[in-house]
Design goal:
single chain; six-stranded antiparallel beta sheet; 14 strands; Jelly Rolls; eight-stranded antiparallel beta sheet; mainly beta; 2 helices
């Protein structure tokens, strides 16, 4: 029987305590004149650098490149999961996704949500639902936005998982290639930044559902509008 720690290692995800310890060791190595390049928070964050996630901009996952691709024909009744690491504490007020090709079915929609990475059995994988943002239309193209400025969301620096589910098949979404891997692959060494599982369209469950996970290596033009940076 694998312990949660062993399961995390098998999937290529370092247990959180180990990653924090390594960050602290690196911070000690980089002390210059008694001043650390790293902040004193957990996780350790580079402080004298580009702030990342600048207020007034949308941000897709930092694990994707700038090379444009089109991810065609998303199926219905399938939860797609995308790693979304955040390096610092933020307040976000909108979420958006770029629909490049309409479903062809009037009234079709796509639902968006966010999970934490707190799975106690396989560390670093989706577990608790943070928010179900609701749905946007997929029977037309364009950048589709859900504005929750009246109920902004505060997120600490951590790994999160964006999710989507389509009511109808045939949706094309603007995407990019993955530049870093989060999930390990039992068949071949590759960069996998998410996965999909079969799940009926509708509200997302409070605990991420179990099921056969099929890994993917593509990200999307899908992410948050940064309202405020707190740290």
């Amino acid at each position: 029987m694998l312990t949660p720690k062993h399961k995390a290692t098998k999937l290529g995800i370092a247990p959180r305590s180990q990653s924090y310890q390594r960050s602290a060791e690196v911070a000690d190595d980089l002390n210059v004149g008694g001043t650390s390049f790293f902040s004193k928070t957990d996780p350790k964050i580079l402080t004298p650098c580009h702030p990342l996630f600048v207020p007034g901009y949308y941000y897709a996952s930092a694990l994707t490149s700038g090379s444009n691709v089109s991810w065609d024909d998303f199926p219905a009744n399938t939860i797609y999961v995308f790693a979304y690491p955040i390096p610092r504490k933020l307040i976000v007020s909108k979420i958006a996704i770029h629909i490049g090709g309409a479903s062809g079915t009037a009234g079709s929609t796509l639902r968006m949500g966010l999970y934490d990475a707190g799975n106690p059995d396989i560390l670093g994988t989706p577990y608790n639902l943070i928010r179900d943002f609701g749905a946007v239309a997929t029977d037309s193209i364009g950048v589709k936005v859900i504005d929750f400025s009246d109920d902004k969301l505060t997120l600490i620096g951590d790994l999160y998982w964006l999710v989507l589910n389509n009511s109808h098949a045939g949706v094309d979404i603007g995407g990019v290639t993955s530049t870093m891997g989060v999930l390990g692959d039992s068949e071949t060494p590759r960069n996998s930044s998410g996965f999909r599982i079969d799940y009926a369209y509708g509200a997302f469950p409070s605990i991420f559902p179990s099921g056969t996970k099929t890994l993917h290596i593509i990200g999307l033009r899908y992410g948050f509008w940064v309202n405020t940076v707190l740290e």
